[in-house]
Amino acid sequence: MGSLEGHLSYISSVTFFPNESKILSCSGDCTIRIWDISLERKIQLTEGYIDTITAVKFSPDGSKIVSSSGDKTIRLWDAQSGRQTQVFEGHSDSISGVLFSPDGSKIASYSSDKTIRIWDVLSGKQLQLLDERLNLVSKVQFSPDGSKLVICSFNGIRIWDISSGTQNQLGRAVYAQFLSDGRRIIFCSANTIKLCDFLSNEQIQIFEGHQDSAHMIHISPDDSKLVSCSWDKTIRVWDISSGRQLFSYEVSECATEAIFSPDGTTIAICLNKTIELCDVLTGKQIQILNGHSDFIPRIKYLLDGSKIISYSRDKTIRIWDTSLGKQIQVLEGHNGYINCIDLSPDGSKLVSCSEDKTIRLWGSENGKIVDVTETSVVDYIWKIGTQSGLSMKGSIWKDTKGLEDEQKMLVKQRGGII
Known about the structure:
Methylamine Dehydrogenase, Chain H; mainly beta; four-stranded antiparallel β-sheet
């Protein structure tokens, strides 16, 4: 009988590879190890995060992925190999979100330590610190030229000039978005939505009609229209130049998100477990996408608008054909809530992160994610991190005489076959 040694702490789970003489083990030393039973040696080691991964984003050129975590670090990964290339340290509490500047040279991060930090991608050094005791930061966005950040928090909206460090406060609001000129900004303020020129502090337009607070907005690709979600259970579409409401779309419950398609002709709306598609010209529903069994936090259109990607508290990612109104792919593998997804700029790959402490990069065997069909095989290309609650999906357990009833139940719960 052989002994496989190498873990530095307790081993929490072990499973056999189906039809292969290999074992996968998971340990409290924050590593996953793959062992070749016939050779009695370790053949692969994956070290990773020790806490929940809160956000992932592709760089503008698609060559890098940045991630943030509850372990107070930001990490940079090579998108091709999954190799870690940089660690950014400085935050003193869990990091809520992270994003690249438009030119990919900088990273912005925001944290529960109530600070926002700007980092240099090449050197890994911190360039700027905004330490204003910001409470509950909900959104951070670079201006189109990368010179400024809009920060939405419980303290209100601030425009931060990164080079000079100067700030401009726009008042209390929960959500804001730059227009493509980088000068005008639209934000939610209680029941109203306001359009301002933040350089001159001039209010350009006000959008009134919601009967309760607006909590989310999205601007059409050509900057001509605005869609808003409110706790009054309506989705409203507005003409930006005139401030006129084009139509109001009533929903059965409060929407979590509404976004324009890339051509601006359709709006996709998240409603708990379903997605509704609405025609911008008529204001009428054109499709309902059903399939998720739990809450959908966010959705994303693919580049040509032909498909939507959604992720849910049911721990799956789904790809939908918008014209047919049906699901064409289900991506499974995460066994914790999915916190974030992002699509590479060329539409070839998808990255996801989860409370199971892993990052997965997904791709299709026959081309780009944007081109997948029902018959395409989509799977993860690489996975980073030590997955909590190891999945046993596909493993076959022929001899279970030594297992207690509780252990057999655990095998079945995690996808094993007895």
